[in-house]
């Protein structure tokens, strides 16, 4: 996909953050947009900020498999084709393995992993039919390394990475006209930390302030990096200098990165 003009782009979680920034970046390149979110007010604001491009908004809960499949069929019907799908919607949870509830664990997995997996599978036939498709799944730097008190989020984001990398190979081996990219953002200045669920013993305010200090990249910059990665057909799109650093750390040290993360976490999470 060398040119995005007039392509139909689907973006989940478009009501704020990276999703909103992606919608605006894609609109600037002439895309026709199918935007979804559970937050109708935020979604409307995003649509207004996209200018005069063709934009349709859909209320969608990506934790519902049936809703996602119905959404895929509706978008294909409304636009006549689908070229680009960005499975971006996500949530966060900070809690230890011992403390987190089954309900919270399921909440994260249903949205962050199953929302991506169902979103990919529901739209894949439409992307193949377009003759020029691209799937973009948002993982995280926490899909590259494990971090204390992020086990549920790690599980979801590692799963997204494995699912997406496998799919990319399948599409190439089957000679299907669909490119596949996995995105690993570092700290992005979005509302995800403020909206995160916390374990009962967590200091929510301290954690959110800590995240704000580490968030190095704006949503607009993240969106530009992702769009450039799409146009280059990059298999792995790293977003932010911290993402590049973490990727390098993992490549160089392998499992030996863990003592470094433990040392950092002892100061920031266990004091």
Describe what you observe in this structure.
The chain has 271 residues and is α/β, with parallel strands linked by helices. The chain contains nine helices and nine strands. It has helices at 17-28, 40-49, 65-79, 102-130, 151-173, 204-214, 219-231, 241-253, 258-268, and strands at residues 8-11, 32-37, 55-59, 84-87, 93-94, 133-138, 178-185, 197-198, 236-239. The strands form two sheets. It has a seven-stranded parallel beta sheet, with helices on both faces. A two-stranded parallel ribbon has the order 5-8.
CATH architectural name: 3-Layer(aba) Sandwich
> Radius of gyration, Cα only, in angstroms?
18 Å
Give the domain tally. 1
**Uncertain runs:** none
Structural class: alpha/beta
CATH topology-level name: Rossmann fold
What is the name of the CATH superfamily?
NAD(P)-binding Rossmann-like Domain
- What is the succession of H and E elements? EHEHEHEEHEHEEHHEHH
Terminal residue distance: 48 Å
How many β-strands, per DSSP?
A: 9
């Amino acid at each position: 996909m060398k040119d995005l003009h007039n392509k139909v782009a689907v973006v989940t979680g478009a009501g704020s953050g990276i999703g909103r920034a992606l919608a605006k970046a894609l609109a600037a390149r002439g895309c026709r947009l199918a935007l979804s979110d559970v937050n109708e007010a935020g979604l409307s604001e995003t649509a207004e900020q996209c200018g005069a491009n063709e934009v349709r908004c859909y209320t969608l809960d990506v934790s519902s498999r049936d809703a996602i499949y119905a959404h895929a069929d509706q978008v294909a019907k409304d636009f006549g084709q689908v070229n680009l799908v960005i499975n971006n919607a996500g949530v966060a949870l900070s809690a230890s393995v011992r403390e987190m509830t089954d309900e919270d664990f399921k909440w994260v997995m249903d949205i962050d992993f199953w929302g991506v997996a169902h979103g990919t599978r529901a739209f894949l036939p439409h992307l193949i039919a377009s003759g020029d498709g691209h799937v973009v799944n948002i993982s995280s730097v926490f899909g590259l390394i494990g971090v204390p008190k992020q086990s549920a989020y790690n599980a979801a984001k590692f799963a997204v990475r494995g699912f997406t990398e496998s799919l990319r190979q399948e599409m190439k081996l089957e000679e299907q006209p669909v490119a596949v990219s996995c995105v690993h953002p570092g700290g992005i200045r979005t509302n995800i930390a403020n909206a995160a669920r916390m374990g009962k013993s967590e200091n929510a305010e301290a954690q959110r302030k800590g995240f704000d200090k580490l968030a190095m990249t704006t949503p607009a910059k993240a969106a530009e990096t992702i769009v450039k990665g799409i146009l280059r057909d990059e298999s792995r799109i790293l977003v932010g200098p911290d993402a590049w650093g973490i990727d390098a750390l993992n490549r160089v040290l392998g499992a030996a990165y863990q003592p470094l993360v433990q040392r950092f976490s002892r100061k920031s999470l266990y004091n």
